[in-house]
Amino acid sequence: MERLPEAQLFSPQLSKLTLWGCKLVEDPMVTLESLPNLKYLSCWEMFVGKKMVCSSNGFPKLEVLVIRGFSNLEEWVVENQAMSYLYRLSISDCNKLKTVPDGLKFVAGLRELEFRWMPKSFKNRLGIAGEDYHKVQHVPSIVFFH
After folding, report:
1. Residue by residue, what is the 3-state secondary structure of the chain?
2. Is 102 contained in some domain?
3. Angle at CA 136, nearest 5°, toward 70 and 56?
4. So which domain of life are we looking at (predicted)?
């Protein structure tokens, strides 16, 4: 499967979605961010592209986002006003991702960040003395697991 179906083919009442092993080539966020009632999204090994974008006003009700095993992901862009209700973000096993998106600093309600099996350089950039700490300094709980 190269891409997800159009957003209108999903139920407008869909609030929880888990996608696993799809190996999508096209950025899935274009479709997923348009689902009006999506509150929980878990994506495991479902995207093989290098860049992912969450657009302004996308994911209007998303509260929890889990991303795992995006092995080719190098860049993730979160535009201002995207995911405005997000409170928990978990990123695991995305070894080419150098840092969190700049736009996370605008997600004011973000309360929990969890990172698993990420490179040491990723962790170092987000530490208190790290060059990207300003992106996550507003988040009360930041946890790294190995």
Report:
1. CCCCCCHHHCCCCCCEEEEECCCECCCCHHHHCCCCCCCEEEEECCECCCEEEECCCCCCCCCEEEEECCCCCCEEEECCCCCCCCCEEEEECCCCCCCCCHHHHHCCCCCEEEEECCCHHHHHHHCCCCCCHHHCCCCCEEEEEC
2. yes
3. 65
4. Eukaryota
Identity of the residue numbered 134: H
pLDDT tens sequence across 26-74: 999 999 999 999 999 999 999 999 999 999 999 999 999 999 999 999 9
82: its two tokens: 């995207």
Q: Is 65 among the domain residues?
A: yes
Tens digits of per-residue pLDDT, 89-143?
999 999 999 999 999 999 999 999 999 999 999 999 999 999 999 999 999 999 9
| Domain annotation covers residue 1 | no
Dist. CA 70–CA 53, nearest whole Å? 14
The residue segments making up the domain with residue 114 are 7-145
CA distance 27 to 53: 7
- CATH code, domain carrying 92: 3.80.10.10
| In contact, 37 and 16? CB cutoff 8 Å | no
